[in-house]
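Cross-check.
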Amino acid sequence: MLLDVKELNTYYGESHALQDIFINVDEGEIVALLGRNGMGKSTTLKSVMGLVKSRSGKVVFDGQDITGRRPHKVARAGIGYVPEERRIFPNLTVLENLLIGVKGGEVDSSGPNAWTVERVYGHFPFMKNRAKQKGGVLSGGEQQMLTIGRTLMGNPKLLMVDEPTEGLSPIMVKEVKDLLGEIGKTGTSILLVEHNFRMAISLAKRVFVMGKAQIGYSGTTDDLKANPAITERYLEV
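Predicted model, tokenized:
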């Protein structure tokens, strides 16, 4: 098991935002974390990443206990995080944005599946043609892809992606979906938070569904599709 989150409890002040959360992701697997707005999905990713400090519970990644580590150390352990807000650097070029994602300032091209600039360009052809353009002139969908590409430049074993299709046109939603599917085929594991139910279950084999601050259901996507009571209770389909 690549990621194993057990009994994670996170608070915002006195508000109990995550209550005994459990999630796991195997190597090479795409897992979706679903639920209505405000249930704690983004907080779960931020807690794993160390952006929000949990009060109790354990996060084990690739055999290491990374509970309580700072975000840069979680990233060095092998977790890449694509935030909902995208957070590209608008005044830097596309290429400069990509290079910011490199750990230690030097591209690691030693492994057979290493993410290099040329490999990213292979998955995102528009970036090669627009490498010298400022990130701020890209469309919303292109900025989302740039954020994903920048994160891949850190060669993560696990990619955590928060609402990648939020605000995108149907054409761009399909492009992002196809891209994540391609990334999954390379062996990179993905933990996907996504409001688009159909898009999420078309990619993931397993799902965790959040109720208010808790996991209300976990199982395969086939089992979820066969259980309309779960989707009616927890999801906006």
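The mean pLDDT is 92. DSSP finds ten helices and ten strands in the chain. Passed to J.P. for a second look.
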